[in-house]
Amino acid sequence: MIKIRRNILVPQVLDDRLAQLAELGEETNGILVCKPQQQGHLLNYETNALYVTALGTSHQVVASPTMMRMLNLFFQHNPQYHVVKWHTHCRGTGEEWFSKLSRGDIDHYQGHLEVNSFFIGMMVSPTQKILYGRGEISLEVVPTSPRFEREERVILQKLENAAIEVGYQGLPTFSTTARR
Ligand SMILES: [Zn+2]
């Protein structure tokens, strides 16, 4: 079991982006790319990039199989990074969903946890974030470091390389991913 406490450090600039995404009429999903740094019994996840993997409807969002292949390839090539998988319950989803996960969300996250006990999922709504994973997990918004932009660029470049490998012409943005 996971005894260690995990704390996700989200730079202010990325927290602002998540807040904007939660204000949309349609749900989105994506990843935070994090670099774990151990401090005694605390594992800090320094977040280096946010990437949107799909735009859905007001009640559902699913990334395409090609997108999933691209992400798997990226994490295979760059095992130093960990992922936090997020999705929004946005303005369009409705207020009754701002503070809870759906049955489908929980089943999906449980599926991930069965193959990877370190998995972390996160729901972002206009009013709150809910983290899902084993052990104690917290999230802290921190000032954007001067290194942030450079680190984010490096990761986006690596994602672009993975995109080319799976056959995308350049790195897809959420506006170009398949809707369903
Ligand atoms: Zn959900």
Dominant shape: globular
Order of helices and strands: EHEEHEHEEEH
Secondary structure class reads: alpha/beta
The CATH topology turns out to be Cytidine Deaminase, domain 2
CATH architecture: 3-Layer(aba) Sandwich
Strand content: 25-35%
The largest β sheet comes out as: 7 strands, mixed
Rounded to an integer in angstroms, the radius of gyration calculated over CA atoms is 16 Å
Helix coverage percent: 25-40%
Count of individual domains: 1
Overall average pLDDT: 91
Low-pLDDT residue intervals, each spanning 5 or more residues: 175-180
What is the number of helical segments per DSSP (H or I, 4+ residues)?
Answer: 4
Q: N-to-C terminal Cα separation, in Å?
A: 37 Å
Features:
180 residues, Cytidine Deaminase, domain 2, 4 helices, 7 strands, globular, disordered C terminus, binds zinc ion
